[in-house]
Every structure is written in C-alpha cells, then in structure tokens.
Design brief:
The protein is mostly helical. It has one domain: Amino acid/polyamine transporter I. The chain contains 19 helices and two strands. A hairpin with a 2-residue loop joins strand 1 and strand 2. Helix 6 runs antiparallel to helix 15, helix 6 crosses helix 17 and helix 15 packs across helix 16. The longest helix is centred in the N-terminal third of the chain and has 34 residues. About 55% of the residues are buried.
Length: about 425
C-alpha cells in the first residue's frame, strides 16, 4: 500500500496505514539515539570496571538513575522543541555570555577527550575482530564517521544512527552466553548497597557521570530543533502551540524508551563483566577493548566478538554526537548557521568545528597522553559541569519568558531538581575523593 501523508495537530508525518508499529518507530528519534549514544566505548569502560571490581554491587544505580536521567533529558528536549533553539542558544539569550562560554568550552574539552578514547577503543576492537594495526583502523573509522556526518543529510543520517543503536543488543546477547546468577543480580538491582570508602564512592561518581552527561543535554535539545527545521509544517511550540499535545507525547515516549534502552544495556554490561572478570579475579579494566579481550578465555570467542562489535557500533554512533553537540553549541554561541541537514558550503563553520573536534580526538592517539588519565579528566569535567548545566536547564524550563505557557509540570520539576541534587552530591563526592 502506498504511503500517504497525514496531518496531526499541524504536523506532517508519513505513515504506512497497515503497519502501526512501523509508524510508531518512525516517530522515535532524538530520545532513542541519545540514550544509545550514552553507552559509548568510554562509558562501556566505566561500566565494565564497575562490574569487574565491584561485581553486582553497583547494579542499583541502573534502576535508580533511570527516572532522574529520563526527566533531565525530557526537560532538555522540551526546551529545544518549545523555543526552536538549543541549550547554548537559550543560555546566550537569557543569561550572561560568560556562563555559556565557560560551560561550552569545558564541555568541548571533555567531548574531544571522549572522542579520542572512543576512536582508540574502536581501533582496538577491530584488532580483536580481524587482527591488524589498531591505529590504521582508528584513522579509517574516524574518517568514515566524519564523511558520513558532513556529506549525508540529517534526514538520511538519522536513519543510520538508529540502525547503529542496535549494536547495543550485542551486550544483552553476551550476558546470556555467560553463566549468570540472575536472582543475585536482580536483588542487587533493587536493594542498594552503600559503602563509604573512597574507592566505592569514586566508582559511584564515575557511573553517575557516565550515565548523566552534559553533552547529551545539548545534543537532544539540538536534535529537537533540527527536527523542527527539517520537517514540513513543524514549528517551535511557542509559535505553533496547536502542535504541543502530539509533540509532548512523542518527546516523553521517545525519551523514556531511549533512556530505558540505555540503562538496560548498562545492566547487561555490568552483569557480564561481574560474572566473567570479577569471578576470575580480574578487577581492573582500563578500556572497553580490554574488557572484550579479557572475555575471550573466560566466556569464549563468540562473547568476545559480540562485545567487540558493540564497541565499534556504539563508537560510530557516539562520535557524531560528541562532535555534533560541540558544533551545535559553538555555532549557537556565535550565531552561525547550524545543523546536519545544512549543506557544507552553507554551514562552513559548523562543519569545521565538528571536523576539528573529531580530528583533535584522533590526534590524541598520537600523543604521549595516557588515554585512561585523559578519560579521568573528561569524567571530572563532565561531573563538575553537569550540575550547573542542569540548574540552568531547570531555571529556563520553569521560566515563562523562555517557555511561554509550556513551562514544565510539577512532577517533571521535582524529578529535575532531584537530579540536580544527585549530581551536586556526585560532584562533591568527587572533590572529597581528591582531598581524602
């Protein structure tokens, strides 16, 4: 049956009348992609270390961060959809410029470091899969990612990102290959274990920082803006309030599904490394690729290959988002044309920032900088700026000057402020771990 165009609250959407599930999947986008990108190779290394060192003891973070992470991402998405601008653009419009400049600069530094670590992890994963020189693979994969970002229009590129998110299922499959005590795992997920030694607190802070990351706020808000700019009949909700019921519903479903997907994968990564590495006395993991390599003698070659394939897929998903969130933020600060749908010659500066961020990340692999130490720096920066960014988001989303009649509801406001409190405590815990 031919596709037909329907208009729902002023929104033009292509549907397939006989396939409601397919139509539903088409409506998903920024939330699912953002959730999947949260489990990038750098984050996988953090979760693998949590499982290897502490077994199931940090599984509770998967359950209890889910509503807070979802609320925060929904707020960022609402800001983008209502105003038609990303977070950096809104911060510049309503707050002193120095706030936007400092936060954006720190986020970009952290993003570049994460890009470098992700590129290195993908090169190592390719080596595990087929052998060969890691650095050559890193260069080729970085180049491929950059070409796709620059020369493929957003409306087509977003479909690639959706398919890449499926790579995360490899971690779920890996967990079912190994022998897991599911009763113990589920108990540890529901019943929190808290210890007050600095090693445990440091691990909690690291997991929180890898789960709730500032670049994700910037990316999802910018993608909602991109959806407005690339979809016929769609406008910012302040301009077209009639579109609000459908869009707010779509944002909530998209975001909560995306964050659920993300946290379920985190659960399986921790379970897999706990039941393989930890039980064999391997308690230190310095990279996602190292975790994949360590799985081979313990869980078999197939489990190792699945883990490695997941690293490559998530890296190809995350690098554009790390670079893209940097380019959107800088572009909005300088009021350049921005957007992955823009032709390169129409948004030269936007694509230049995106390219430079990716190439700088690649260049880190040719320096004597210790990649693990660099990741610690990135996690530290993310941990320190997350709470300030979230505070600004909460203030903007509750301000009628910014949001008009679409200020966030009370329940979302409570969830947002609880998230702020949690990340503030995490930042204080990080500082405490330095001085003790």
């Amino acid at each position: 049956m031919n596709k037909e165009t329907e208009f729902i609250n002023g929104i033009s959407t292509k549907t397939s009348p006989g396939n409601p599930f397919k139509n539903f999947l088409k409506r998903l986008g920024p939330g699912v992609i953002t959730g999947a990108s949260d489990d990038d190779p750098s984050a996988i290394a953090t979760f693998s270390q949590a499982g290897a060192h502490f077994s199931f003891n940090l599984l509770w973070t998967v359950l209890y961060t889910y509503p807070l992470k979802s609320a925060t991402q929904e707020i960022s998405a609402r800001i983008g959809r209502v105003t038609g601008r990303g977070l950096a653009g809104n911060m510049l419009r309503y707050y002193p410029p120095w706030i936007s400049i400092i936060i954006t600069s720190l986020m970009i530094i952290a993003n570049v470091i994460n890009i470098g670590a992700d590129i290195a992890a993908m090169g190592s994963a390719m080596n595990l899969l087929i052998g060969g020189p890691e650095i050559i693979y890193s260069i080729l994969l970085a180049a491929l990612s950059l070409v796709l970002q620059v020369f493929i229009p957003y409306t087509k590129y977003v479909k690639i990102l959706k398919w890449l998110s499926l790579a995360l299922f490899s971690y779920m499959f890996t967990a079912f290959i190994v022998d897991v005590d599911w009763k113990m795992a589920l108990t540890a997920t529901v019943v929190p274990e808290l210890r007050w030694d600095t090693k445990f607190l440091g691990a909690v802070v690291a997991v929180l920082g890898a789960t709730i990351s500032p670049y994700l706020f910037f990316w999802q808000a910018s993608q909602e803006t991109e959806e407005v700019n690339t979809t016929p009949e769609e406008e910012p909700l302040k301009v077209a309030p009639r579109q609000a019921p459908e869009q707010m519903k779509r944002i909530k479903i998209d975001t909560y599904l995306g964050m659920a997907f993300s946290n379920i994968i985190i659960f399986f990564i921790i379970v897999t490394t706990a039941m393989t590495l930890n039980t064999q006395g391997i308690t230190e993991v310095n990279s996602a690729a190292e975790a994949a390599g360590a799985l081979k003698p313990l869980a078999g070659r197939f489990a190792s290959l699945l883990f490695s394939a997941g690293i490559i897929g998530t890296g190809m998903l995350a690098i554009p988002i790390l670079g893209g969130s940097s380019a959107y933020a800088i572009g909005e600060l300088f009021k350049w044309p921005v957007g992955l749908e823009q032709k390169p010659f129409r948004a030269v500066n936007f694509y230049l920032v995106l390219s430079v961020a990716t190439l700088l990340g690649l260049a880190l692999n040719f320096t004597p900088i210790n990649p693990i130490q660099a990741l610690i720096w990135a996690a530290t920066i993310n941990g320190l700026i997350a709470a300030p960014v979230m505070i600004i988001m909460m203030l903007m989303s509750s301000n009628r000057m910014v949001m008009g009649r679409f200020i966030i509801p009370a329940g979302l406001r409570i969830g947002g402020w609880v998230s702020v409190a949690l990340m503030t405590l995490a930042a204080l815990g990080l500082i405490y771990s330095w001085v003790v």
